[in-house]
C-alpha cells in the first residue's frame, strides 16, 4: 500500500474522471487537473468564484464547475483549454447543477426549485422543466443514460416525469401514490424505477419503465419509515433501510420481502465474525500490519490500532437519539452493495461506530466491524468485494472476506480521513481530509488480518 | 326385719373396711348364721363384746363397760349407743348423698364439657375449612391481580410506544413546517428584492463555440416520428429485459427440474432395493420408468422430458411422483429409526417424537383394522343370510336345535331344581298332613275340654272358683298360647263348625286330601281354584304347622300376626 503525498483541496471536491486517467480537484476558485498515476498537474483553470460543485462529463472531456452563490456555472474542456463556457442563471439563482448522461447538456435547478433549466452546449438551446420537487433525490438518470426520472409536485400531488435524454422528450408522466415523495432511483438495468415516500410513511413503489405500477411495499405504519434505499448492481435485490434499525430486501421477481436484516445492540447466535478495533501503544512493532513500502511520517503522533476478533456475545455501543428532534439519528442511513451483489454493507445511525456486512447468498450476517470512533464513510471496491472505510481519524480500514486491516495514513501533521473514493479500476483510493487529499495505491496481493 | 338387715350391711361394710385377720376369723362364726342373723340366744355375750368393741372403735360411748356385768343390757346406754350409731349412719348417708350429688354434678359437668369440646371441635373444623377456602380464594385473586397487572403493563408499554410514535411524527411535521416556512420567507424576500431591484439579470449562456454532440451524429428534429421511436425504444428495452429474465428463469427451472428428476431416480432406486415385494404395481412402474429412462439416450431423454414437462400435467405428475417417493422414503427411514431405537432401548418410539409420523402409522393401522372389521362384517352377513334362507331341513333343524342348546340345558337344570322342590313339597305336604292329623286330635281334645268347661260353667254358676281354679289353671295354661285368640274364639269355632258341617269328610282320623285339608283349615277361601302362588304361600305356612299351635286364624286376623311370626321364628 502506497500513499501519495498530500495535496490541498477545498470543499471535498476531488473527482477522478470516468475514464480513470485524470484527477480533478478544486482549490478555492481554481480547478486543478492531474494525472492519476503521476499526480502531475496537467491543467489549471480559474473560476470566477469559489466552486461549490464540480463534476466530470461522462466522456471525461469536460468539467463543470458550479458556483451556487453567484448563480454561475463554468464548463472547462480538457482537450481545448482555451474553450470556455459560462452559464449565468441570473436572478433566479442556482441550487444544483449537473451533467446530463451524454455530456452535452447541463441541468440547473434554480433557487426554490422553481424550475430545472436544461442548457445544451451543442445548440445553446434552453428547455425548462416545471415544478421539480425539492426532495432528498428528485432527479435520477438511468445507468445507460437514456432516461431521466424527475420528481414533480403539482397541486399538492406527486408525479414522476420520465424524459428521454436524447432530446428531452417527455416520455411518461404519471402520478405516484405517495404522500410526500422523498426520492426515486432507477434499477441498474433501467427497467424499474423505485420511488419512496418520506419518513412519515413507509411506502416504496415500484414502477416499470413505461409507467405501470408494478408493486407497493409497506412494512409497517405510523412509525418513521424509509431512511435509505439501494439497488443491488444485478438489479435482483432492492435494499430498504428504515428507522426501525432494519434492512428489508425485496426480490425483483415478486417484489416481496425475502428477508430482513436486524441490527441488535447485542450480537449473539450468529456465525459472523466481529472485528473490534483495539488501539495499540505507539512504539509497538507493527507485525500485524503487512505494509510493504510505508512512507513513515511522524508516527509518534499516531496510535496504531489493530483488529481483534471478539467472541460472542458482543455488545455494540448504542447512542440513544434525542426523541424530540426531527430526523433522529437512528435507523439505517447508508446501504452499499458490493459490485458482485454478494455483500451488503450497512450502517445504523445509533450504532455509529459499527459497520455491518451481510452476505447476500446466505442472507445472513457476515461480519461486524466495530471502530473506536464513528464511521464517516465507506465504499466498496468497484471490482472486488473489498470495503474501505474511514472514521474521521488518521487510519484507513479495509475489510474483505479474508479479513480486516487497519492502516495508518502516513502524513505529517495528522490527516483526518473524512471521506474516501475508489478509483474506477479499484487500484487506488482517494482519501479526503478536511482540506487535504491523499491517494492510496493498493497492492494487489496483500490481504491479511 | 329391715333393721337387722341394715345392721348387717353396716357390719359387713365395716368388716370390709378393717381387714384384721383375727377379727375376720373370729367374726366368721358370728357372721351370718344360717338364718342370716347376727345375734342369737347362744352368742349374746360375744355379740355384746363385739358390739362394744365396734362402738368404741367408732368413738362412741360404749353401751356397757364391763363385759362381766351380766347379760343385762343397759338399755339407756344401748339406746344412746344405738342413737349414736343411727346418727353416725345418718351422717354417713348424708355424706354419701352429698358425694353422690357431687358425683352427679361432676358427671354432668364432664358431659357438658364433652359436649362443649365436641361442639368446639366441630366449630374449629368448620372454621379451618372456611380458612382454607378463603386462602384458596385469596390465592386465586392474587393470580388474577398478577395477570391484570401484566396486562396493564403491556397496555402501558403499548401506549408508551404509540406516544413515542406520535411524538416523533409530530416533531417531524414541525420540522417540515419550519423548513417550508423558512423557504417561503426566503421566497418572499427574493420577490421583494426582485421587485425592488429594477435591474433584472437575465439568464444567459456564453459559449466560445458550439461543441459537437457526444455521439458525433447530427441532432434530429423533434417530430412525432421521434416520439414514436422513443416509445418503441422504451418498449424494446422493457421487452429485452423481460426476455432476459424469462430466459434466466427458464434456465433455473430446467436446473431444478433436472435436480428433481435426479432425486426421483435416486429415491426410486433406494426404495426398490429395500422393498422388493411390497408395493408392486406403482413401484414396478416407477422402476420400469427409471429403467427406461436410463436406457434411453441422455440427450434424447432430456429433450423428450423437457418437452413433456412443459405442460402443466407433466409438471404436476413429476412433483406428485416426487412427493410420493419422498413420503415412502420418509416412512421407510422412520421405520428404520424406530426399529433401531426399539432395538436399543427396548421401548417403542417416543410419543413426543414426530406426531405426524405416528399419526400416519396410526392411520395405516386403523385402515387395516377397518378392513378386517369389514371382512368380519361381511362374513357375519353371509352367515346371517344362510340362517335366514331355508336350507336343508335336517340342517335347519340341527341348526335350530344347536342354537337352543344352551337354553335347553338351562331348562333341564331348572327342571331338575323344580323336581327337587316338588319332592320337598311332597315331604312337607306329608308333614303337613301329619300335623293336620295331630291338630285334629288336639282339636278333638280341645272340644272335649271346652265342652266339659262349658258344662262346668253352666253347672257351677257360683263364685267359688278358688278350688276349681287350680284345676282349670292347667287347662288354661294350654290356652295361654292362644290367649289372644279370645276375641275371635267365638267366631272361629262357629266357622270351624260350619266348615266341619260343610265337609263331613273332614274326619281327623283319615288323612284328608290336601285341598280338603286346606279348605278345612279355612286357608282357602270359597273359590277352590288353587293358584300356584297361593300354593307356595301355603307351602310356607305348612312348614309353620310343625309347631303345635292352631294358627288357622292368621289369614283373617291381623292380631294373629304376632303369634304367627313368633311361631314362624320358632319353627324355622
UniProtKB/TrEMBL annotation, chain A:
<dbReference type="Pfam" id="PF00400">
    <property type="entry name" value="WD40"/>
</dbReference>
<protein>
    <recommendedName>
        <fullName>WD repeat containing, antisense to TP73</fullName>
    </recommendedName>
</protein>
<dbReference type="GO" id="GO:0005815">
    <property type="term" value="C:microtubule organizing center"/>
</dbReference>
<dbReference type="InterPro" id="IPR001680">
    <property type="entry name" value="WD40_rpt"/>
</dbReference>
<dbReference type="InterPro" id="IPR052778">
    <property type="entry name" value="Centrosome-WD_assoc"/>
</dbReference>
<dbReference type="InterPro" id="IPR015943">
    <property type="entry name" value="WD40/YVTN_repeat-like_dom_sf"/>
</dbReference>
<dbReference type="InterPro" id="IPR011044">
    <property type="entry name" value="Quino_amine_DH_bsu"/>
</dbReference>
<dbReference type="GO" id="GO:1990811">
    <property type="term" value="C:MWP complex"/>
</dbReference>
